[in-house]
Amino acid sequence: MGRRPRGAAVRGGGCAVVFRGGGGVIRANVFLPAVILRSAPYTLELKHAFGIASNTRTSTPATLVEVEHDGIVGHGEAAMPPYLGESQATAAAFHAQAAALLAGARDPFCLEELVPAIDALAPGNAAAKAAVDLALHDWIGKKLGAPWHRIWGLDARKAPVTSYTIGLDTPEIVREKTREAAIYKIIKVKLGRGRDIDRMMIDTIREVTDVPITVDANQGWTDRAEALAMIEWLAGRNVDFIEQPMPKGQAADTAWLKARSPLPLVADESCQRLADVARCAEAFHGINIKLMKCTGLREAQKMIVLARALGLKVMLGCMTETSCAISAAAQLSPLVDWADLDGAVLIRNDCFDGATIVDGKITLNERPGLGVTKKAAA
After folding, report:
1. Which residues is 128 bridged to in the sheet?
2. Pair 151, 366: CB distance under 8 Å
């Protein structure tokens, strides 16, 4: 039997031929049709102005992505609040690079080679990378005819309730938002603009409801003694935990706070990717994983595994997003302790149907892939 020429493809599937793209080396089967990536800008319009410790906005720039191969289309999304440093222009530039890489790759099933190669194309661009990761996962699930929670062997009935987020606002608007959240079992409230405003937010919500609250300070408390005093005050007001109380650059102060806090501390800005998880164990009781920060489902799943090994609690969070990205995160939700996956209900122009919230609980469907379909008018 003659020797196969060096670099020749092996028929029958898999990743066979070496393709050297800008992001490193991946292997492709040249007998498969090309993988096509398309992207388009989309602006998410918020129902209410959304205020956090550092800014307020009424819309969120996004980019919608499609991966097409073998007659199947997978959907993905990048949601990019401006303070994170990405934009529709940077996403378009990154997706042009990713499209060239995928066209040479040819086999969307090769996630363990494709996703790291896409990650290596350029630093940053976490949301743009997540959009491609989500679209590839959606494609694979559709090809297999199963949703990802089933592929991972998860029980959809174990999906947690989700919180409903109330941003910093006037007392009148906070009361209105709290009444809108009547079906939710937990309310997440943004704090971090000073003691008086922070206390006003909590007191105003407590005028309307006594459901548990989770607090997100968005790095807004810079003095550890003042942060501890605020947490002690919050502990008497049915608050479950505090998300990112201090700036991520103040790890030592946060560790000091952890040792004294009557409430669990959960890392957000301090924990963006897999490499951050182990460091967070010293200063936090848990981590918040967001697909738009960690580059997608592949890395999010790895972060959950590592966090559990380190004894950390796990939360799944989101930006303001369509039901595409929310449904993607929901596929992992049976694995976590807490979820804040209300991003799609905060916008006016959701262009996907996907996972829903029923009586405050994340409800997964049995559609394949991410469990989403694009609305006809979108």
Report:
1. none
2. no
Q: Are residues 186 and 68 in the same domain?
A: no
Separation of first and last alpha carbons in the chain: 56
Q: Say what angle helices 111-119 and 126-144 make with each other, to 10 degrees.
A: 160
Q: How many domains does the chain have?
A: 2
Strands, E, within the chain: which ranges? Answer: 17-21, 24-28, 36-51, 56-69, 72-79, 163-166, 186-190, 213-216, 239-243, 265-267, 286-290, 313-317, 338-339, 352-353, 356-358, 361-363, 373-374
Burial class (CB in 10 A: 0-12, 13-18, 19+), 56: exposed
Return the pLDDT at 3: 39
Of the candidates 144, 161, 193, which is a domain's last residue?
A: 144
Query: Is the pLDDT reported for residue 180 higher than 80?
Result: yes
Same domain, 81 and 176: no
Q: The sheet that has 72-79: what strands, in order across it?
A: 36-51, 56-69, 72-79
Q: Single out the residue in 88, 111, 144 at which a domain terminates.
A: 144
- Of 4-13, 46-55, 127-136, highest mean pLDDT: 127-136
Average pLDDT in the 345-349 region?
A: 95
Distance, CA of 249 to CA of 144 (rounded, Å): 44
CA dist 356 and 293 (Å) reads: 23
- Do 41 and 61 share a domain, yes or no? yes
pLDDT of residue 21 exceeding 70, the answer is: no
Q: Do residues 259 and 290 both lie within one domain? A: yes
- Residue range(s) defining the domain that contains residue 164: 149-374
Which residues neighbour 303 within 8 Å (Cβ) at sequence distance 6 or greater?
271, 273, 274, 277, 287, 289, 294
- Strand 56-69 vs strand 36-51: parallel, antiparallel, or unpaired? antiparallel
